[in-house]
Each structure stands twice: as structure tokens, then as C-alpha cells.
Amino acid sequence: MSLRILIVEDDDSIRTALRWALEDEGYDVAEAASGEEAVRMVGIAAPDMMIVDLMLGSMDGFTVIREVRRAHDLPVVVVSARADTQDIVAALEVGADDYVTKPFQIKEITARLRALRRRTGAAPAGHQPDGAQAGIVLDHDPEAPLVLREASGTVHRGNQQVPLTLTEYRVLCELAAAPGRVFSRQALLERVWEHGFFGDERIVDVHVRRLRTKVERDASAPRLVVTVRGLGYRLDPQ
Fold first, then answer.
1. How far apart are CA 61 and CA 66, in angstroms?
2. Which candidate, 44, 45, 50, places its Cα nearest to that of 22?
3. Global pTM?
4. DSSP secondary-structure letter at 32?
5. Which of 26, 93, 109, 122 would staple 153 via disulfide (CB 3.0–4.6 Å)?
């Protein structure tokens, strides 16, 4: 079954070029020419992924991503002419998983989408053997332990699933693969983004900050995902 992708772009020529390229890649493509239309179509077309331009008129791409993130956890790639670091960080802050600047090569877009698809390859929850369901306990809080289950691609705090984006989840998995080891920002970029991200390494800080708000007992005083000044980040299971 083909994955459905929603292209949110007000430039007809760019939207059409993306549609043709993505259909050649086997995607089922839906289109929206405005932010308002995009928000409506997420509920109607139920896309698996989104490509979003930032400059869309009355409802910009930042607002679209923010609105979608309130109820959906699908991967979002921003494609924009705005190449300033502040714009990139702002898009990631509101929930984008990746950022591509215009002008771009279609092959770059499809490569990034394939990388995001690889991150969604886990089997559905509830169909894992007992050992996989047990997962890795990251925080032994007696009332609500934090458990990472890579086999099902989920993280739970007690009985509640933690709503991580794909990039946040991937960062956590990389840190959890080597507890106590310090990962530099560059190392995390290479491991998490896979195909590489040709931008500011501070995007890692953005994702770590968002991750902490979801997995730490107190995000203002993180004890699980800690900063090693001048070096990077490490995971200290509690």
C-alpha cells in the first residue's frame, strides 16, 4: 500500500514538479495550495507525511505545522526559500522533522523522505514478543517508569505513550544505544539524519530541548538527557 504524502505549496509549478517526482517514487500524492486548505486536508486525506512551504499567505507554514502537531504525529519536511538559521530553528521548534532550502534538487527531497520512511519501519505495537514489549527502562520512577520499546517504536511513561516526533524518537534511540556515552552534535546529526543535514548544528539543541519536555521529570533540571558542556549530550538512565 502506497504512503500518502500531502504537499503544501502555493507555487503551482513547484507543487506540480514535486507531485510528478513523488508519484514516480510510488507515493499517493495530495495537494494543498494554502495553509487553511492544508489543515482541512489533513483530516480528510489522512496523509502519512507532509511537505510544507513556509510562505503560504494568511496562514503560514509555521502555523500549519503547529496546528497539525496538535492532533497528528506524521513526519513533516519543510521546503522553503527562507534559509536563515532562525527560520530553520523556528520550524523545528514548532514540530518539523527536516528542512530543505530552495532552490533544491528533487533527488534531495526524495532522499530525505526515504530517510524519514526508514524511521517508521517498526512493527505495529501489540505484535511483539514478550521480550520486545519489556523494552529498555530509561527512568525507574516507581510510579511511572519511562520505557523505550524499539520493536514497536514507542516510548511510555507509565501507562501513557509519550508523543514523540520521529526525530525526537530517533535522538532518544541513539542516546539510549550507548548510555553514559557522550555524543557530539555532529555525531547525532550524522546518525539521526542519516543523509546528512547541511545546516547549523544547533538544530540538535532544538530537538533535545523538545525531547526533554516530554521525557524528563523536570525539563528545567534535566537528569536523563544531560548536556556535557563543550562536548555534546549523553543519556544517564535513572
1. 8
2. 50
3. 0.58
4. E
5. 122
Of 85 and 42, more confident: 42
Grid cell of 16 as nine digits: 506540480
pLDDT of residue 180: 86
pLDDT band per the 50, 70, 90 thresholds, residue 127: very low
Amino acid at 19: R
Cell 557522550 maps to which residue? Answer: 182
> Got the DSSP string for 182-212?
-B-HHHHHHHHSSS---S-THHHHHHHHHHH
Scanning the structure block, which residue is given the C-alpha cell 538559521? 85
**Grid coordinates in use for 34?**
494554502
Distance in angstroms (rounded) separating the CA atoms of residues 92 and 204:
10
Angstrom distance (rounded) from CA 130 to CA 92: 35
46 touches 69 (CB < 8 A): no
Alpha carbon of 182 to those of 9, 51, 149: distances in Å? 39, 33, 22
β-bridge partners, 52: 8, 78
Identify whether the C-beta of residue 159 lies closer than 8 Å to the C-beta of residue 167.
no
Q: What is the DSSP string of 161-173?
A: EP---HHHHHHHH
* Upper half-sphere CA count for residue 126 (Cβ side, 13 Å): 1
- Confidence at 52, pLDDT banded by 50, 70, 90: very high
Q: Answer with the residue of higher pLDDT: 103 or 233.
A: 233
